[in-house]
Structures are given as structure tokens and as C-alpha cells.
Amino acid sequence: MAAIVLILALAGLVGYQVAERFGMRVLRAEAQHRLDLLASAIDADVTRVTHIPGVLSLNADILDLLRLPNGESGEHGKRSEQRRVVNRYLERLSAQHVDSLAVFVMDVTGRVVASSDWILSDNLLDADLSRRPYFREAINGAPFRQYAVDGVRDEPGYFFAQPIRDEKQDWRIVGVAVLKASIRGVERGWLANDAPAMIVDGNGVVLLSAPPEWRYATLQPLPGEQVAELIKAQFDGRQLGILSLGIDIGKTPAGEVMEFSGRAAEPASLAARGKRFLVMSRNLPGTAWHLLVLSSVRPVRSQAIAYAALAVAVSASLILWALYLRQRRRVLQARLGAQVLLEAANRELEDKVAMRTADMTRTVQTLEAEVGERLRAEKTLRAAQEELIQAGKLAVLGQLATGITHELNQPLGAVRTLTGNAIEFMRRGETETAEKNLRIVCDLADQMGGIITPLKSFARKSPAVPSRVDVAHAVGSALFLLDQSLRRSGVRVDNRCVAGERYSWCDQNRLQQVLINLIGNAADAMTACPERVLEIAAEARSDGSVCLAVSDTGCGLPEDVLNRLFEPFFTTKGAGEGLGLGLAISRDIVRDFGGDLLAENRVGGGARFIIVLPGENARESAESVSP
Ligand code: ADP
To answer: Which own/partner contact pairs does 293-297 have at CB distance under 8 Å and 24+ positions apart?
Structure first.
């Protein structure tokens, strides 16, 4: 920030100085041009009349007048006549040159002998101007020019004096011809031009000035005696040198910047133009006079300030542009860096991902292998379980076989007797009776089919297919198959299940297998007991499942038996009576449904086995899980 401020300040300074230098050069050139113009205007004004005194010095009438002796004698009449002639001539001459205030001729004593203003009452005639420098110089033989205020008319003017020599008197100086030209016109022109300018004489006295307040001021303070002398010789009592402008004329030809502000010398018209002015001067050719022009520096300064502001603005724009470019480069670099970093991070990430993917692929492969292994193991296990269940079923069938054969024996014997009788009746020709017998045989065959069919369907090796099972129906089927055996064992059956009351979502065949197992075990446990009651009841639980309880009045379950009840091959029965697999298989079957098999002792003695079965609503949840 400091550097930027410094650069801007420098730019402003340099801009200001360059513009000011250039402006000053232009101002100087303009001032110089103005000086040249004014000088040539003055020169034209003056040179227009310079020749007139020369012309006068050659005029025969004037010479004649000057030749006439200056006395009050007899020739006085002739002299006044000649004087009149010359006066008229001078009047005509003056009238032709508007600016010339007066043209007059002096004799060697410095007295005016003829004058163009002879007609006016305050004419110069007979005035003694012998003390005037122009007279004194001219009478000594040198043409002279001088600015002066003449005492008679109290009017400033430019005096050109020319000695008049008489050819007939051996070129002796016989008088002086003088032309007094007004230069006020020049001054008026300057005022109209409204630009400060002045003419100073060789002594540094301001003769003409716009502003007019500076007239008769001096450039530098003059010594008192010199002032007094000048007043006497040239300015006819005018106040002179009251004001000193403090201008060193030696410096002004090249142009000098000065300040008039706050000084007594400052006229009001100047104050409006600013404080500082460029003062330039040049010598008027053929004179000791100098022409001075003043040019206000204010426009140059305001222009320089404008250029300085422009330089600051341009520099500021350039700096801003440079800053913008730098910032942009930085942003691009940062973006590039970020991109490189991002790419590196990307590569690293990709490598890691590839590594992880490889790891995961390996893990997945391992897992797949394991899952495959598990699936195979599960399949094997399931197959084994199925086999086991089937084996259990066959074992149950084996137990049932005795009862069934007994059941079938009776109708079979009847069939044999009836068919034998039918043959005999047919031989006798009693076909009607034979037909009756055969009908009974038919019914018996149906009855035997009724015994065998459920057995067949029970023995069938089928995978568990869950369906809505009426619990009472399954209980009924199991009891039907064990009917003979229970009856033989003297067991009273108290079946409290009501058909169509409780339903479960399970496989009927398997449930039947479990029930046959439990009922068989109960019958076995009650063999030695006097009271043999088998109670089967089903009740619904609050969660929708169904509890099917098989209770007996048997020996109950001692602690050690209760603990190991469901262990495979645990049995308390003798060899050939039990394998110890019944309860283990039964629990597997029930758990396969999503239920459980529990055992407990009854309060009054005996054991109770509870089959917890999923309710019929289990179907929806099972379907919603695996539609
Ligand atoms: P098994 O009947 O072949 O012995 P189980 O697994 O069916 O095999 O039964 C295991 C054992 O549980 C039986 O040996 C028996 O001691 C006991 N048990 C089963 N049911 C009852 C019951 N209702 N009352 C008393 N003990 C029982």
C-alpha cells in the first residue's frame, strides 16, 4: 500500500512537473509572440512619425524663420509673418498625423518659435524648453527621442527632436525641430486587450501601463536625487517612484515568474487573474525602452493539476491492472496446484480402492466359498434331518405295526369266512346270500383301507410343507393311529381339542408325528401307574401362537431326566424298547415350524409336554418375509 501510494504520488508529481514545464514553455512562447506583436505595433506607431522632424529640418520656411534675427526691431513684422506661415504649415502637418500632439520648432536658445498648436490659447509658442533633455541633446547635434510630460499642456508624449542645420550658415545648427507623438493610443489598445503590459524607460520608470495604476512606478527603487532630477527634467512635477514593482529587468527577457499578490503594487484588475505571473520583456529597437508583458500562470497550474490527476488516474489504472493480472496468475497457479493435488489424491484413492477391491474380492470369494460350504453342510444336515425324521416315523410305524396288524386281523378273518361261505352258497345256487356275503366283504375291504390309508399317508416321505392346520384334526389322526395301542394299555384319553377351534401354520403330517411320539411316551410312562389318563388340550396364547399340551398321569420326569430329555440317544427304556431319538426329533420338527417343545412335571404327578405352535397368522409374516 505504501509503495502504491508512493508511486501514485510520484506519478502525480512527475505529471504535474512535466505539464507545468510544458505549459510554461507554451506560455513563454505566447508571451514572446505577444511581445513581438506589441513591439511591432509600437514601432509602427513611432516610425510613422520619426521622419517628420527630419522633414522639418529641411523645410525652407522654417529655415527662413530661424534665419531671421530674434529681436523686437524693424524686422519684427516680417518675422511674425514668417512665423504665421510656419505655424500654418506645422498645423497642416500635425492634422495629417492624428497621433502627433504637437509639432514645433525651437531656436538655439530653446524657445519655441513656431508650433502646430499656435491656434490654441495654451499653445507652446514662446515657451522656454531649453532645459529639456531632447533640446539639449539635439542642439548638440544628435537627433533625440524621449518620453516626457510637457509642462505647458501637462500631457505626456513621445518627443522626437532633430537639429536643424542651415546650409547657408555652413551647416550650423540653427534650431531644433520637435514632434510630440501621443502614445496613449497604444496604452488604450492594451487596456482594451485586457492583458497586463507596460513600457519602461532606461531608468526603469513605467511610462505606459495597463493596468494604469502602475504608471510612473519604478521597477526597482531609485535613489532620491535621481528621482528628483527625473521629475524635473522629464516628468514636470509628476509623482514618480512612489511604487516599486520589484522587477529585475535583467531577468525578464528569458521570462521570470513573480508574485504580486498581497503587495501594495497589486492592482485590483490583476488580483482577479491569480497570484503568479510570468513577466517577459524585450527591448524596443532603437530606444533604451523595454516592453514588458505579464501572463497569468494560473491556467498553466490548473492544466498541470489536471495532468497530474490524469497521471495519477492512469497510474492507478495501470497498478490496478497489474494487481489484477498478478491476482489472476495466483488464482490460476493455486487452481493448477489444487488440480495437481487433486489428481495425486485421486490416484492415491484409486490405488487404495483397487487394493481394497482386491482385498474385498478375495474376502468375498472366501465368503462365497464358506457360504457354499455352509449351504452344502446345511443341505447335508437337512437331508440327514429328513432322513432322521423319516427314520423316527418308521420307528413309530414299527410301534404301530402290532396294533394295526391286530386291527386288520379281525376283518381279514371275517373276509376269509365270508368268501368261503359265498363260494358254498354259489355252489348251492343261493346266489342272493352269496351276494350279501360279498357285499359285506366289500365293506370290510373298505374298512381295512380306512385303517391303512392314514398309515400310508403318515409313512409317506414328504418334505415339510406348512399349511393352515386344524390342531384338533391332527390330534384326532394321531389318536386314531394309536387307538389300538392305547386301548390295549388301558389308557383313558381325555381329548379336549374341539375341531375348527384352534388353527396353526405348520405341516400336519409332522405335527402328527410329534403327537404320536408324545402320546406313545405318555402311554409308556403310565404303564406302571394305576390311573392312566392322557389329557390333550389346546389353547391360544396372547401372541397368537397355539399351546398344545399332552399331559399324563405317569411317573413324571426326575431332575436328571428333565435335564437330558432332548439329548439324542437319551433313553431310560430298555434295549429294543427305545432309541432315545423321539423327543430330539420332535423338538427339531417343532422348531422347524418356528415353534418349540417344552417339558415339565405336573403338580399332581405325571409329565406334561407342551408343543408351542405358530398361530395361523404366522403365514402372513412368513410370506411378508419371503414372499
Ligand atoms: P425313547 O422313547 O426311545 O426312550 P424318547 O426320546 O422318546 O426316547 O424319550 C426319552 C426318555 O424320556 C424316555 O426314555 C423316558 O425316560 C423319558 N420320557 C419321555 N416321555 C416321558 C413321559 N411322558 N413320562 C416320563 N418319562 C418320559
So the answer is: 293/31, 293/34, 293/35, 293/38, 293/195, 293/196, 293/197, 294/195, 294/196, 294/197, 294/270, 295/27, 295/30, 295/31, 295/34, 295/195, 297/24, 297/27, 297/257
With a 6 Å cutoff on the Cβ, whether 572 touches ligand 1 is yes
Q: What is the pLDDT of residues 47-99, one digit of tens each?
A: 777 788 888 888 888 888 888 876 544 456 788 888 888 998 888 888 876 55
Q: Is the CB of 284 inside a 6 Å radius of any atom of ligand 1?
A: no
The Cα 524–Cα 567 span in angstroms is 19
551 lines ligand 1 (CB under 6 A): no
pLDDT over 70 (residue 261): no
CATH number of 49-182: 3.30.450.20
In which residue ranges of the chain is CATH 3.30.565.10 found?
463-625
For residue 475, what pLDDT band results from cuts at 50, 70 and 90? very high
Q: Which of 489, 491, 517, 521 is the best mutation target for the ligand 1 pocket, counting ligand atoms within 8 Å of the beta carbon and taking the most?
A: 521
Residue intervals in the chain for CATH 3.30.450.20? 16-46+185-296, 49-182
Please report the atom of ligand 1 found closest to the CA of residue 522. 23
- Peptide bond before 211: cis, by omega within 30 degrees of 0? yes
606 lines ligand 1 (CB under 6 A): no
Going by alpha carbons, the residue nearest to atom 23 of ligand 1 is 522
Which residue of 489, 571, 577 sits with most ligand 1 atoms within 8 Å of its CB, as the best mutation to test the pocket? 571
The third-level CATH classification (topology) of the domain covering 463-625 is Heat Shock Protein 90 (3.30.565)
For residue 386, CA distances in Å to 174, 515, 586, 589, 616 come to 177, 17, 12, 10, 24
CATH number of 16-46+185-296: 3.30.450.20
